[in-house]
């Protein structure tokens, strides 16, 4: 499923002479791949949401391929919940369009059945028991998987007769997640689902998610502040900063097209246009930059190394104005 260009595996290790050398025949990776419509689980075009004069999400154009586990990361207030709320049909766009599983979010019963959503505060009905929640789920969801729900509740050690109001925050989150998964949706949207779970429960839940996507043709979009969780399960990444999508794509491709460059001190503005500088730090003698390049462009005087997901995410999150734009 994943495409990875072999040339990027060798980036920086295979040096040629000559300034700004570009390897002949280098294949270019599209920044905005055109994904056939039937393979797209979420398609946004110029999507925006404004509250009074403030845009919570602006000019969001995205294609999320089906069958992926997508990590949505960004600082507080970046617009993650807004994007997820628009995708779940809980919010109405101020501008642009969003399509989920080929339809308008929340448009009708069939469309509602395609999407499972767990909000940040994992709402449950305090006076209803765990078993009542499962019965409600079965009634409202045409594709309800009763066995999966029962089995998961048993594995979690939740008592079916216990009222949701007497569950801990983490247990309520697990109940809400169980209902969302047992609905057997095509797309599962999770707004910081694991924030309330203990580390072991978090690991197990993320494991469940990975298995469910493999077995059920499920796509997952989940927001998280924990890059380590994203790294563990996600194969697609979206970084939102200040209401805008700063980075989106296949995790392996993103890692393959970004490099940490160490150079004698230089002004990033003098770099070739094919190198996008994401972040730059200078000492008296040297410059360290996180750069994006679709082709192997480097100078013999530079050292190029791979970038980890955390460094990549933090570099984009740290941008108020993209460094490359500021320099050019
Ligand atoms: N109902 C609302 N009314 C007014 N402003 C809102 C409303 N909901 C969100 N906002 C604003 O929109 C922006 C984006 O909020 P959103 O909740 O989408 O961010 P987030 O990335 O999910 O943040 P966090 O990581 O803290 O949950 C914020 O500035 C927030 O104050």
TrEMBL record:
Pfam families recorded: ABC_tran
Record SUPFAM superfamilies: P-loop containing nucleoside triphosphate hydrolases
Keyword vocabulary terms for this entry: ATP-binding, Nucleotide-binding, Transport
Coiled-coil portions: none
Keyword Nucleotide-binding: yes
GO MF terms, alphabetically ordered: ATP binding
Domain ABC transporter: 42-267
Signal peptide coordinates: none
Top-level taxon: Bacteria
The keyword Nucleotide-binding is assigned to this record: yes
Name of the protein in question: ABC transporter ATP-binding protein
């Amino acid at each position: 499923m994943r495409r990875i260009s072999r040339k990027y595996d060798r980036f920086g290790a295979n040096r040629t002479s000559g300034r700004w050398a570009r390897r002949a025949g280098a294949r270019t990776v599209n920044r905005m791949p055109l994904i056939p419509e039937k393979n797209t689980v979420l398609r946004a075009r110029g999507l925006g949401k404004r509250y009074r004069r403030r845009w919570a999400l602006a000019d969001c154009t995205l294609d999320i391929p089906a069958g992926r586990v997508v990590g949505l990361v960004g600082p507080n207030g970046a617009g993650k919940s807004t994007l997820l709320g628009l995708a779940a049909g809980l919010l109405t766009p101020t501008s642009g369009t969003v399509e989920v599983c080929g339809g308008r979010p929340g448009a009708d019963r069939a469309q509602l059945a395609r999407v499972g959503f767990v909000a940040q505060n994992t709402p449950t009905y305090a006076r209803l028991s765990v078993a009542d929640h499962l019965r409600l789920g079965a009634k409202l969801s045409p594709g309800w998987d009763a066995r999966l729900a029962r089995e998961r509740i048993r594995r979690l050690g939740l008592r079916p007769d216990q009222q949701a109001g007497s569950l801990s925050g983490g247990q309520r989150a697990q109940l809400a997640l169980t209902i969302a998964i047992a609905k057997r949706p095509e797309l599962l949207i999770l707004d910081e689902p694991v924030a309330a779970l203990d580390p072991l429960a978090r690991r197990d839940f993320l494991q469940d998610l990975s298995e469910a996507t493999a077995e059920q043709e499920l796509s997952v979009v989940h927001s998280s502040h924990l890059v380590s969780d994203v790294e563990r399960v996600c194969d697609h990444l979206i970084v939102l900063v200040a209401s805008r999508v700063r980075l989106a794509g296949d995790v392996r491709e993103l890692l393959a097209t970004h490099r940490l460059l160490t150079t004698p001190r230089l002004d990033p503005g003098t770099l070739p246009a094919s190198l996008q500088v994401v972040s730059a730090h200078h000492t008296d003698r040297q410059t360290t930059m996180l750069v994006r390049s679709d082709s192997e462009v480097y100078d013999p005087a530079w050292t190029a190394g791979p970038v980890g997901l955390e460094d990549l995410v933090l570099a984009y999150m740290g941008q108020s104005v993209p460094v490359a734009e500021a320099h050019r």
